[in-house]
Design a protein that fits this description.
Blueprint lengths: L1 H13 L7 E6 L5 E6 L1 H5 L27 E9 L2 E10 L2 E8 L1 H30 L1
Length: 134
């Protein structure tokens, strides 16, 4: 178990995610959950049961395993209404590790910026139309 913690900690540090809400699934080559850490209920609505198929909790992973590239990153996936995650899939020895990092705040900020940009574009377009009509 100690090696698992070292692997998880080094991945989190290497990718600078120490301060984000996260959850980690460890699955075998058959796609069954072997172990888990963190607040997976935040991402999946419940804590997973060991030896259950991972696809029962996270449909987005169907067809992705086995990985062709590691790590494979799935950015900004809506896990449930209002919960967005960046999902990192990593092959490490005989297991796959799936890291879920909360991206809800970043997506919300992006939505606000896009909304403001769109409102500015509409305002500018209205102004252009007014100038054209005079």
């Amino acid at each position: 178990m100690h090696n698992n913690n070292d692997f998880i900690e080094s991945y989190l540090i290497r990718h600078s995610f120490q301060n984000k809400i996260y959850g980690v699934l460890k699955i075998n080559n058959m796609g069954r959950i072997v172990d888990w850490f963190g607040v997976l209920d935040h991402f999946m609505g419940e804590f997973p049961n060991p030896y259950i198929d991972v696809y029962a909790y996270c449909h987005i992973l169907e067809g992705i395993l086995p990985l062709h590239t590691t790590p494979t990153i799935l950015p900004r996936i809506e896990m449930s209404p209002g919960v967005i995650a960046d999902i990192h899939l990593v092959k490490h020895f005989r297991f796959y590790w799936i890291f879920f990092f909360d991206a809800t705040d970043e997506v919300e900020q992006m939505r606000e910026m896009i909304q403001k940009y769109n409102e500015d574009q509409i305002k500018n377009r209205k102004n252009d139309l007014r100038e054209d009509s005079t």
